[in-house]
Amino acid sequence: MTPSPKYITGDKAAINEFIDKFDTFLFDCDGVLWSGDHVFEGVPETIRMLKAKGKRTVFVTNNSTKSRQDYLKKLSNLHIPCEKEDVFGSSYSAAVYISRILKQPPGKNKVFVIGEAGVEAELAAEGIPCIGGTDEKFRRDVAPEDFQGLADGSLLDPEVGVVLCGLDFHINYLKLSTALHYLRKGAVFLATNTDSTLPMHHSFFMGAGSCMIPLEYASGQKPLELGKPSQAMMDAVEGKFQLDRSRTCMIGDRLNTDIKFGIEGKLGGTLHVLTGVHKKEDWDKEDAVAVPAYYADQLSDLGLVA
Amino acid sequence: MTPSPKYITGDKAAINEFIDKFDTFLFDCDGVLWSGDHVFEGVPETIRMLKAKGKRTVFVTNNSTKSRQDYLKKLSNLHIPCEKEDVFGSSYSAAVYISRILKQPPGKNKVFVIGEAGVEAELAAEGIPCIGGTDEKFRRDVAPEDFQGLADGSLLDPEVGVVLCGLDFHINYLKLSTALHYLRKGAVFLATNTDSTLPMHHSFFMGAGSCMIPLEYASGQKPLELGKPSQAMMDAVEGKFQLDRSRTCMIGDRLNTDIKFGIEGKLGGTLHVLTGVHKKEDWDKEDAVAVPAYYADQLSDLGLVA
């Protein structure tokens, strides 16, 4: 049986002990630092306090619509101390995987993107050519000639060897059908992440996984996922930051992504905060997908230190 | 062990015996009568022959984009003898279910549609009000104010009590997010059908199920399916045509919809034709979803009669 998570809110001794256990903190962003564009009270001060104590703070996000540069801007605007190197997003993770691990043969190295500018920017930074994405040519209704051209292959780019699927606010029938045809021709199927929902304004919208799932359903293939909880992402984070996993803690609001990511990555600890998607009752039930080691009402509760 | 299906192509005695066993033939359309706009050779003659022998011919289709009227037009254009009453589509099945079985309370009887004009026409014919569907207001990119308005409910119609999902060539983020919010507010979740793909031009495109699956994934709810192989559809067909199931045969090209539909409906027989999605090897494998009683290379093989 998994032991119950330790509740540290308001318990100064427990908080000090918790912070002392780790050198590096990996933070999920949405639901931990902010909700939409609203930063949670005390978050910038908490990050500053951790940095002042010599801790490394890394922001590990599944949001694929933003590049690391975009994230840096957002963090700075919200007065959260951060450098570009401290941001690790699922688009970046996917781009690194494609360029350094997958290594497609020449003539097959283009990526068909379902996603927004963040994916394109990270692919470009790794020197990977891509089509689809934000291209206006794909942001339109499907036409009769598309059916013919996709079926006979004349509308397909023979250099596409990968379909990469992230969150796409402009998802449509044409993009999905085009991606399906590349998959049927043998393209490698990757997903930045498979979160089913996107929390915004205290509600839930369609997440990256909900943009990808039609392709899984229609093709019968499952994508390799590069975001949390995929250990491909953990390996990339570890490789980049040379971290000691036993002295690293993952902080998040989702059991099935953040907490699972930390546990499967054999990190020294996981902290669940109750400002996002999952609540106490989600790990209390018998079939909980993952149980954190610690939990707190909110991130800024860590501020109660000596 | 299920006995192997009997192959009747070219076997005059077997074909005569097959035809004599049934009074009513239920035909799937795409993959049986035609592919896209191309009617298979000999199909009109075969239907005419069956009618001349006093058989009832009913066209049972999962294609939700067309109304019965649209289907009648298509069948007539392809010279397949048919009357409007002989057509039974999944949109019609859904409309009948909503109006006659579901019976939503007044003030909750509107349907939010993901789908094309066929769904709207069948709902209108049953006197059910609907929104969404082909309305241009939903055929656009999602905007920041949509996120706010969906989250706070100001963009939601309080009279919507049902989300009905069919094949939508104009599927987009706004429609899916709107439907998700209705589901989260307790709307009944229905699908015209859940076919993952749409066969066209000898290839496969996104089917109705692939338009619906993001909602299932994001909401965690499964829709009640009104098309084949749902027995809700079989009950409706039986109710309308007063047929003797033991003297009825389902003819189709998909094991998981058509053949399963006939077997679970306890029809007298099922005939699989090899002009569509599934092939011989699909029922030969151990975990085949359904095994037909008869099979033929093509529908017009029935023409070889005395």
Automatic annotation (TrEMBL), chains A, B:
<dbReference type="InterPro" id="IPR006357">
    <property type="entry name" value="HAD-SF_hydro_IIA"/>
</dbReference>
<dbReference type="InterPro" id="IPR023214">
    <property type="entry name" value="HAD_sf"/>
</dbReference>
<feature type="active site" description="Proton donor">
    <location>
        <position position="30"/>
    </location>
</feature>
<dbReference type="InterPro" id="IPR006349">
    <property type="entry name" value="PGP_euk"/>
</dbReference>
<keyword id="KW-0479">Metal-binding</keyword>
<dbReference type="Pfam" id="PF13242">
    <property type="entry name" value="Hydrolase_like"/>
</dbReference>
<dbReference type="GO" id="GO:0005737">
    <property type="term" value="C:cytoplasm"/>
</dbReference>
<feature type="binding site">
    <location>
        <position position="30"/>
    </location>
    <ligand>
        <name>Mg(2+)</name>
    </ligand>
</feature>
<dbReference type="GO" id="GO:0046872">
    <property type="term" value="F:metal ion binding"/>
</dbReference>
<feature type="binding site">
    <location>
        <position position="28"/>
    </location>
    <ligand>
        <name>Mg(2+)</name>
    </ligand>
</feature>
<dbReference type="Pfam" id="PF13344">
    <property type="entry name" value="Hydrolase_6"/>
</dbReference>
<dbReference type="InterPro" id="IPR036412">
    <property type="entry name" value="HAD-like_sf"/>
</dbReference>
<feature type="binding site">
    <location>
        <position position="228"/>
    </location>
    <ligand>
        <name>substrate</name>
    </ligand>
</feature>
<feature type="binding site">
    <location>
        <position position="253"/>
    </location>
    <ligand>
        <name>Mg(2+)</name>
    </ligand>
</feature>
<keyword id="KW-0378">Hydrolase</keyword>
<feature type="active site" description="Nucleophile">
    <location>
        <position position="28"/>
    </location>
</feature>
<keyword id="KW-0460">Magnesium</keyword>
<dbReference type="GO" id="GO:0008967">
    <property type="term" value="F:phosphoglycolate phosphatase activity"/>
</dbReference>
<dbReference type="GO" id="GO:0004035">
    <property type="term" value="F:alkaline phosphatase activity"/>
</dbReference>
<protein>
    <recommendedName>
        <fullName>4-nitrophenylphosphatase</fullName>
        <ecNumber>3.1.3.41</ecNumber>
    </recommendedName>
</protein>
